[in-house]
Amino acid sequence: MQRLTRVALVVFVVACFAAAASAETIVFWHWYTADRYAYLEPLIEKFEAETGITVEAQMYPWTEMAEKLVVGLAGGVAPDVFAVSSITSAPLVFQGVYTDLRPFIENETEYDFSDLLPNALERWQTPEGMQFAFPFDLDLLALFYNKAIFDQAGMPYPTDDFTWEATLEQGKRLTVDRDGDGLPDQYGFANGHISLDTFVWAYGGELISPDYTTHGLGTPEARAGLEMFHDLSQADVNMAWGDASRFGYPHPPAAFGGGLIAMYPIGAWAPSAFWKDAATGQYTVDFDAVLIPGAEEGGKALPLEGQGLAIMSTSDKKDAAWEFIKFMVSEEVQTVSGRDLGQFPVLRSVAVSDDAFLVPGEPPANKRALIEASMYARFHPVHANWEAAWTTIRQQVSTYLAGTQALSNVIQTLDELIPGILAR
Does one domain contain both 155 and 128? Predict the structure, then answer.
């Protein structure tokens, strides 16, 4: 009887330790506004009930997250798990912010990594193989087009094999000055959500040299891409960001919803964000989408951006944090993220699901193009000073797009500036 009592006591003590281990509180930093977080909150509460892990969620604006993480790391008030943007993630790798997730992935026996879309996991790796974050959503561009504008012009709709050359030619034809005042009343294109990387890569160029010591924009291929970007940025085809205000719209995405733009490269989140009437639930424009165009001499390419989830290097609750990340990238959460938040899911099964992303009757009809776009996606370099170099590159190229500098002068300026920035 005493032996049974001792055994029972041991079992009780072990159970208490197990319960204490699971009853942890992890701090989660994110950038969801209250109305968007409300969709995830019931799911996170379910995770807490099932695991005994309490999640203390704290919101910081997207624009402040990277700085907050560095300050938090230095001050000892950092989170356990945090959202990270692909746009601002690279410098944090070199500041000791991230935990390498490779050991967790290698030891994982339950999660189905094969369901992740192509490139999703690789997006968050360094050249040396460190897995500094886990994918949560993707941001991929497609070419959205206004069907009514093409119908009125008697022109065929864009197709998945559309080229940038065809985009430019048709965009010019669809830019119309109806009242003769010298300003377009309808635009064929808008470039507000696309950048030079898409064009440079499509024409066979690179952003950076193979040894990461300077930029790669001086090659004939890269220059050809920049020239196409320039041509698609001119007033005879492109609605510049400020042009939308002439029509009473805050920006070109809203102007597309008002029927003023024929073609717009933008992400999957745009229809629900800009073109859906909140009061009626109806879309304000009849649209569809195709794959992002490619170059006649080259191919298709676009940057793979998105949101990842990472574990802070100083966290002493890494196992619980990993359980939370797996949950956030589960079918249940990804379905809500895709269906209710309009975010591009990273799981193939959710992306092709009829009740999450490819919802029948929900435009665009060719939404599958957004999934197929991941095949052409590429990544920016993971380099300590790439963000600063990229900012300088875009600033200089913008002067070429605006016509204040020749491309040769821009290249010469980058030859002088970028090596020093990358070598800091």
Answer: no
Residue 256 is encoded by which pair of tokens? 């597309």
Distance CA 356, CA 112 (A): 19
Structural domain containing residue 39:
2-140+305-364
The number of beta carbons lying within 10 Å of the beta carbon of residue 245 is: 11
Say whether both 82 and 123 belong to one domain. yes
Cβ–Cβ under 8 Å, residues 92 and 98: yes
Find residue 143's DSSP bridge partners: 265, 290
Overall domain count for the chain = 2
Distance CA 393, CA 390 (A): 5
Q: Is the pLDDT of residue 408 over 90?
A: yes
**Whole-number Å distance between alpha carbons of 184 and 298:** 32
H helices present in 23-120, as ranges: 34-51, 65-75, 90-93, 102-107
E strand or H helix at 205, and its extent? none
* Highest mean pLDDT: which range of 294-298, 300-304, 410-414: 410-414
Residue 90 token pair? 């690279």
C-alpha pair distances (Å), 35 with each of 59, 153, 222: 12, 41, 42
Nearest to 370 by CA among 289, 270, 288, 295: 289
Instruction: Quickly count: other Cβ atoms within 10 Å of residue 131's Cβ.
Output: 21
- How far is the C-alpha of 394 from the C-alpha of 195, rounded, in Å? 8
CA 402 from chain centre, in angstroms, equals 26
Q: Which residues pair with 137 in a beta bridge?
A: 307, 345
Cα torsion at 222, 193, 169, 291 (round to 10°)?
Answer: 90
**At 392, which amino acid appears?**
T
Would you say residue 15 has pLDDT above 70?
A: no
**Contact of 226 with 407, CB cutoff 8 Å:** yes
Per the listing, tokens 């919802």 go with: 359
Contact between 391 and 371 under an 8 Å Cβ cutoff? The reply is no
Q: Are 117 and 347 in contact (CB under 8 A)?
A: yes
Q: At what angle do helices 220-231 and 386-401 cross, to 10 degrees?
A: 60
Position 14 scores a pLDDT of 39
| pTM (whole model) above 0.85 | no
Same domain, 283 and 220: yes
Residues 6+ apart with CB under 8 A from 238: 171, 187, 188, 189, 190, 191, 232
